Amino acid sequence: MALYVIGDLHLSFGSDKPMEVFGEHWDKHYDKIKEDWLNRVKPEDTIILPGDISWAISFEGAHSDLTWLDQLPGKKIIFKGNHDFWWVSLTKMEGKYETIDFIHNTFGTYKTYGICGTRGWVCPGEVFTAEDEKIYKREVLRLELSIKQAKAAGYDEIIGVLHFSPTNEKKQSSGFTEIFEKYDIKQVVYGHVHGKSNFKNALKGNYHGVNYQLTSCDYLNFKLHLLME
Fold first, then answer.
1. Total domains, the chain
2. Is the dihedral of CA 201, 139, 65, 46 positive or negative?
3. What is the DSSP letter of 22?
4. What per-residue confidence (pLDDT) applies to 227?
5. Is 81 in contact with 111 (CB distance < 8 Å)?
6. pLDDT of 129-177, one tens digit each?
7. Are 48 and 75 in contact (CB under 8 A)?
8. For all residues of the chain together, what is the average pLDDT?
9. 89, exposed or middle or buried, with CB in 10 Å at 0-12, 13-18, 19+?
10. Strands (E) located in the chain
11. CB-based burial of residue 106 (10 Å sphere; 0-12 exposed, 13-18 middle, 19+ buried)?
């Protein structure tokens, strides 16, 4: 029984959005992901997906992408990304797919762990508008709500999940990093960051006692990252 993570699948089976425009390595990237997935994941395993699942703009439009995921082995815990415009209310999404749990102001589980998080947002820095601040504060609150719910349910061990990076480009503390430190969370995964030029500046490893792991699928070379087993 293992726990994996991979972010930013950017699937487009129901729409015309070829990812190879972002580089040859993206050519049929979904086949690379599927091959690795089928070789490693068992039905009893769990996979965290930190956002940007589908390019669809409606829940109905995302059906082909979500069905593709649903048919792969393992339980999937899905968080919203900034490109997941298909995302609707939990009441409309829950129960539609056998192996998928959608997380929004809630939390997922793996063994004794609570899987807690939210989409996140850009963090305060050189370019940060009043609208950014509004969304940022809301997302910080959602992160803490997710953690509090898991703690109240008896999950003292927490794995943190964001879609956006937890800090700005200067790696300065943010509301997100402060929440993770406040609740003594040791492991956080996130995505959103793409391209070799950006990978080197992304937050990775130990930061104020918390281990951060970048999990965008191109950073992982389109292979799932094993968190624990």
1. 1
2. positive
3. G
4. 97
5. no
6. 999 999 999 999 999 999 999 999 999 999 999 999 999 999 999 999 9
7. no
8. 95
9. exposed
10. 3-5, 46-50, 75-79, 100-102, 107-110, 113-118, 157-162, 187-190, 205-207, 210-214, 225-228
11. middle
pTM beyond 0.90, yes or no = yes
Question: What is the Cα Rg of the chain in Å?
Answer: 17
DSSP 224: P
Instruction: Find where tokens 């769990």 sit.
Output: 46
* Token couple for 107: 């939390």
DSSP 3-state of 164:
coil
Residue 130 corresponds to which amino acid?
A
Segment 124-133 shows an average pLDDT of 92
Domain that holds residue 53: 3-228
State how beta strands 107-110 and 113-118 pair.
antiparallel
CATH code, domain with 216: 3.60.21.10
Contact 49, 77 (CB under 8 A): yes
Token digits of residue 69: 């995921």
Cα–chain center distance at 189: 7
Q: What is the pLDDT of residue 197?
A: 82
CA 103 to centroid of chain Cα atoms: 10
**Separation between Cα atoms, residue 12 and residue 187, nearest integer Å:** 30
Contact 30, 10 (CB under 8 A): no
| 159 half-sphere exposure, CB direction, 13 A CA radius | 22
Residue with tokens 């999990």: 215
Sign of CA dihedral 82, 84, 85, 87: negative
Give 169-211 pLDDT, tens digit per residue: 999 999 999 999 999 999 999 999 998 888 988 999 999 999 9
Measured between alpha carbons, how far is 13 from 70 in angstroms, rounded to an integer? 14
